[in-house]
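Bench notes, afternoon.
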Amino acid sequence: MTRRVLGVDACKKGWIGIAGDLRAYFAVTIGELVERAEVDGPLTVVGIDIPIGLPVSRAREADVLARRVVGRRASSVFATPVRAALEAATHAEATALNVEATGKGVSQQAFALAKRILEVDRWAPGAHCAVIEVHPEVCFATMAGRPLSHPKSTWAGGEERRQLLAGVGMGVVGDIGLAGEVAGVDDVLDAAAAAWSAGRYAEGRARAYPNPPERFADGSSAAIWA
């Protein structure tokens, strides 16, 4: 990768980033993470495993298409709630608002990520580089040319993903400092996959789901890149 990129995934204590040169970073906020990565050089693209571009009254086309790409791993792609639901104080309130807007509720997984989604939503417009949404399972399916066979939480799934990353020059090994102490194995693998897609975007080789990106009433747009 000739242009410097960063792949980002949320972890329990904050955010983990893997750069295209395999350097690893950790920070509590997304802004701090990118600042730490930029100490080692300016970034061209940041790929984040978080929804970017929030719907108002319907399911995002990006989520629908991503489920098709990942096949048997479709359950890993949750439906992005509408903005009002993400800003709700409780899961029950979020579910009610989302049902009113789209006819469907909000999963516990999606609601648990609400603060992270809104954090990126606030940060991204002021970023000094391109910020794109990625989904690791879409990244891995693209690397493999097919949906993956095993869940990432299993040993077989972890090995499947490590081999794919090694095959594209993104095999993370050894001591990666604080990031390796606070993030899970799957977080590291997902961030490395995100960096791979960010590199493809920087080179003009990434594919958008959908293409062109879907646009919403608030002016934001959504596409998952791989």
